[in-house]
Amino acid sequence: MAVDIARRFGAELVLLRPPCSWRSAGRLSPRRRSAPAISRTARLPTKSSTGAKVKNNSLTGTELDEKALNQVPAANHANSADTANRAITAVTANNVMSAVVGKGAQGCTLLRATQPGTSAEVATGHQGTPKASACSVAFPRDVTQCTYVAGIGENHAGEATAGLTTTAPSVGNPQAVFVRTMKTNGEYAVRPFHLQVIC
Questions:
Q1: Parallel, antiparallel, or unpaired for β 74-93 and 96-102?
Q2: Dmax (CA) of the chain
Q3: Residue 80: CB partners within 8 Å, gap ≥ 6?
Q4: 150 phi and psi angles, rounded to 5 deg
Q5: What CA–CA distance (Å, rounded) separates 196 from 129?
Q6: N or C: which end of the chain has fewer CB atoms below 10 A?
Q7: Which of 105-109, 140-144, 154-158 has the lowest mean pLDDT?
Q8: Would you list the domain boundaries of the chain?
């Protein structure tokens, strides 16, 4: 067709390729242009993409540079965190709680604990004397399904008088652990102890 036009007007034509292609049906159709590829390593401008602009579960570890992410200070579950409900390593893990209880003036005196809101008192409703050999240690969460570990021990340097401990969920308080202290022969006695609760 271009040659026929050139012959008709007796001139040479310089033709530019139009943005279309011939089809067998003789009609013109727009030439499809492929979208430019986006590099997976391209960096976006700072603050150009916020959480609201990212579709849930659209980014995985292969799209993110972990070194560019800050450490998570707190999380419900984490491999590593300053504070976590469950963690492989953490400065404070809320699923592991502990308390140190001393004899004190009245017995069952809380000396220190890992979680704020922890308390200790003489347990009521238990038989046997001395009364302060039965302690109730309360934590700031439900501990009925947790594991309890207690052992005789002082809060300061030095060895405590040998003794035994038993533990159980506290009656009437789902946040407390009952601890009984005894002499090595099983006789009830007031002893300082360390308690750990793992949930």
A1: unpaired
A2: 125
A3: 71, 87, 88, 89, 90
A4: -130, 150
A5: 25
A6: N
A7: 105-109
A8: 61-93, 96-198
